[in-house]
Amino acid sequence: MDEQRKSPDFIETLARGLDVIRTFDAAHRQLTLSEVAARCGLPRPTVRRNLVTLEELGYVDQLDGRFFLTPKVVSLGMAAIASSGLWEMAYPHLRRLVGRTNESSSMAQLDGVDIVYVARVAVPKIISLRVDIGTKFPAPITSQGKVLLADLSPDELEEVLSIESRCEVVGWEREKTPFIKEELSLVRSRGWALANEELAPGVRSIAVPVRDLRGRVRAAMNVTVNAAETSISTLIDEYLPHLLKAASDVSADWVAWQSRPIAQVD
To answer: Which residue stretches of the chain are H helix?
Structure first.
């Protein structure tokens, strides 16, 4: 951000508006004007103008002096997801995968040092963690995050791991960086990642990459299970082959979509 602000074309007011939106999260769904100002480190008058603007545009609403985001905000993120073509291509493959494993499956992409869920098909099982489209978790303690981090260059990885997580989930500490780098090397070589109750007690998952036209890992797909019901060996021996097939099919569809001819209109 500091480098961006050196540019004469940088729009400070837009950046502040985005800061205000990012102030809200799962643990802070409703905030007063003072609380928003304190959380994003901006003056109250600046925050008030941003909230009024966002409210008039339909992205924010308020009740009894407490502000909250409206569902319209989701359209901002979904526009990026839709433009990539990933959601439409992934969903049928996720459904088939869930039909074969009878376990929940999701797709996530990297957002700083966090992952953000962009597609999900869930089954009604007791898991001590709620996941919706747009949910974020620290990448280093999730199977999908490990897959995404493993594809980064050493310099990219250093930069990402230096970013502050925007999640409320406790579990990722910066001093664990040497250990995560060692694990990422293993993930890189075998092509899949495991998270064994690192994100939350009782939650176990396995993930594999989804690649784009250039072979870069742009998303990760996983299978999530209740650790008390499903062993690691079951995840690896029974579910991983199905997961690899589903991710390969999504990658193939995505590559075909990216390779489609674009008609030029004069």
So the answer is: 12-23, 33-40, 44-57, 74-84, 86-101, 143-150, 154-161, 177-190, 232-234, 240-258
Region of residue 93 (left: phi > 0; alpha: psi -120 to 50; beta: else) = alpha
What average pLDDT score do residues 99-110 get?
A: 94
Q: Which amino acid is at 249?
A: D
Alpha-carbon span 14 to 124, nearest angstrom:
41
Token pair, residue 83, equals 């433009």
Q: Residue 25 in 3-state DSSP?
A: strand
Please name the residues in contact with 56: beta carbons below 8 A apart, sequence gap of 6 or more: none
**DSSP character string of 89-130:** HHHHHHHHHHHHH-SEEEEEEEETTEEEEEEEE--S---SS-
- Interval 202-222 mean pLDDT: 92
CA–CA separation, 51 and 24 (whole Å):
12
Tell me the domains of the chain and their CATH numbers: 4-69 (1.10.10.10), 76-258 (3.30.450.40)
Mean pLDDT confidence for 30-56:
92
pLDDT in tens, 109-135: 998 899 988 888 988 876 667 788 788
Shortest CA distance to 21 belongs to which of 57, 48, 59?
A: 59
